[in-house]
Design a protein that fits this description.
The chain is elongated. The longest helix is centred in the middle third of the chain and has 6 residues. It is 12% helix and 44% strand. It has four helices and 13 strands. A hairpin with a 3-residue loop joins strand 5 and strand 6. A six-stranded mixed sheet has the order 11-10-9-8-13-12. A five-stranded antiparallel sheet has the order 5-6-2-1-7. It is mainly beta. It starts with a helix and ends with a helix.
Length: 174
């Protein structure tokens, strides 16, 4: 949620190196390779910061590093990242993903079709599919926290507006 606001520029992917997804990242001279000891790093794809995790990481010279990102072990995939900026969350601004998601407890969930559904009572941090748990009409309803379903977030009012797929809430009420 606030992650994009906390990102700081680390450097840029300058080129591929080899055929197994290796990349050379040239980073800002005032930083060090150790800045990235904690993962992930972020690269903007389609306007959104996407997290990348290191499979391997090796400093090269004074301001370059040789890296391979998980699930990017092919030259064709790595080539897509050349020329893109690499960002990191500074140590003082770093929050664990589970802490960030737990910040949503207490938010009111409002669906376009059903109106106010309830208040988030628990966050289920399922890898790749975080879900919100809430009580609606005396029954627990689990809603996937998917950016395609979120139409708006009002952090001050603690409200999340969603457009849920037809029938999702009804599954829990039957």
């Amino acid at each position: 949620m606030k992650q994009a606001e906390q990102l700081q520029l680390f450097g840029e992917v300058s080129k591929t190196f080899g055929a197994n997804g290796e990349l050379i990242i040239k980073y800002r001279e005032e930083l060090s390779a150790q800045t990235l000891k904690k993962e992930p790093v972020f690269i903007y794809m389609d306007g959104l910061p996407v997290p990348f995790y290191f499979k391997s990481f090796e400093p090269k010279g004074t301001n370059k590093m040789l890296v391979v990102f998980e699930d990017m072990e092919a030259e064709a995939l790595a080539r897509e990242l050349v020329g893109k900026s690499v960002f990191f969350v500074p140590k003082h601004g770093r929050k664990k993903r589970s802490d960030e998601l737990n910040d949503l407890i207490g938010f009111h969930i409002i669906d376009e079709q059903h109106g106010e559904l309830g208040t988030v009572t628990e966050v289920l941090d399922i890898p790749g599919n975080p879900c919100l748990s809430l009580n609606h009409q005396g029954k627990e309803v689990i809603i996937p926290l998917n950016e395609e379903l979120v139409t708006r977030v009002d952090a001050k009012a603690k409200k999340i507006y969603l457009k849920l797929p037809e029938g999702l809430v009804d599954l829990y009420l039957e």
